[in-house]
Amino acid sequence: MSRRSPAHTLPLSIFNLNHIDTCLFLNYHTIKHVMYLLQDCTTQAEPGSHERSKGDVMDVARRTPGNEEGDILAQARQPFPSIENMASYRRESARINEVPSRLLKERIVFVPPFINDEIANYLIGVLLYLESDDASKEISLYINCHGSLDGNLYYGLGIYDTMRYLKPEITTVCLGAAQGVAAVLLAAGTKGKRFILPHSQVVLHQPLSSVKGQASDIEIRAHELLRQRQSLYEILAEHTGKSVDQVMQDADRRRYMTAKEAVEYGLVDEVITREELAQ
Q: Where is the active site (predicted)?
């Protein structure tokens, strides 16, 4: 019985030969193995028929779109990339790695898709650094976040408390989603400087948790979740002008809001449109 290649579990786009120039950093034998996997993935064959000759593998490369001259294999035979290619690659990598530094220089902080203890510590550190750098300049917090990874509110509330502690004004912008504790961070921006893009959404919901263990441990965790929920509702009520009971009722089940609804609810102050940015 023939042995199946691991490539059967991978999407075919991984082996798109239009992008095979990245294989300049591989040796010739690795290229042959990639060609073998490609042939094995794209051919409907009987068991055992994927054991092809070297000539078959080379033929796949010669039939690659945009490779009429067979230059891919010629490049792949080079044991190391050329100095010119390596220098270009390093320049490109340097530009990509400069992005976070450039944003930080402009006092822009991105909240990532999920918040855990490491992310919270990083964001808190960045906010404190920006305040120490210049306490008179505002900070922009860009949010596209689905909340806490494990449902624990402490990570997000640590960021929230830091925002409230800082002297600089904080502009918050939702671009994508602000769910759970991320909605709290969005609402915690300086009044009048809380914005949302037209197709973004805000979601209110209760704290989430998956609890295992003996009954007494589950009971303790349940009481803690209820306490966290009360804190969450009180914070949202403070920043939206709603009553705690109203927030509790709205967040009892997931409450999805469009950008316009988030403005009406008081979570943000304005929907940013392209026309407004152009003014």
A: 205
